[in-house]
Amino acid sequence: MKDLKVVYALIQNEEGNVLLVHNTDGGGWSLPGGKVEYGETLVEALKREVREETGLFVEVNDIVSVNEGKSTQMNVHTLFFMFKAEVQDYTTDIQMKDEISTLGWFSIPEADEKLIYYHHSLNAFINNKATYCDEGFVD
């Protein structure tokens, strides 16, 4: 079974709304993020994915959730990492128009309705906190 890592950013604006992107592949709405590429750390991948999907430069903060799933049909075991992230400039510009059709800022109840992958409210993640440390190369 192949291993896959996926990162997502939980970004809130000053009003407390959450940024969501709409995927063109039929995946519906999600938090900005995507697959970690070979050689990337989780944070490097998250910064790249958010930039590609939204045009935003993020500061990555604490990890707030780790989920996993297996697909026997696709023969893949996926780990999903959600981080809180902050931005200084909220001006968005979708870079990957073939992957993201639109994006928007939604209240947590609105986002909860659109996000089909989470079994509980984003409120559960807002106050979660775990440290994350990239320990670099270990010889």
Explain how this protein is built.
- It is an enzyme of class 3 (hydrolase).
- Residues 1-130 form the Nudix hydrolase domain.
- Keywords: Hydrolase.
- With 139 residues, the protein is an alpha+beta fold.
- It has one domain: Nucleoside Triphosphate Pyrophosphohydrolase (Alpha-Beta Complex), CATH 3.90.79.
- Helices cover 17% and strands 38% of the residues.
- The protein has three helices and seven strands.
- It has helices at 42-54, 108-114, 123-126, and strands spanning 2-11, 18-23, 28-30, 33-35, 59-71, 76-86, 100-106.
- A hairpin with a 4-residue loop joins strand 5 and strand 6.
- The longest helix has 13 residues, at 42-54.
- The chain is globular and about 45 Å long.
Task: Please describe the structure with a list of short key phrases separated by commas or semicolons.
single chain; 139 residues; Nucleoside Triphosphate Pyrophosphohydrolase; 4-stranded mixed sheet; 3-stranded antiparallel sheet; 38% strand; globular; NUDIX_hydrolase_CS
Provide a brief overview of the structure.
This protein is an alpha+beta fold.
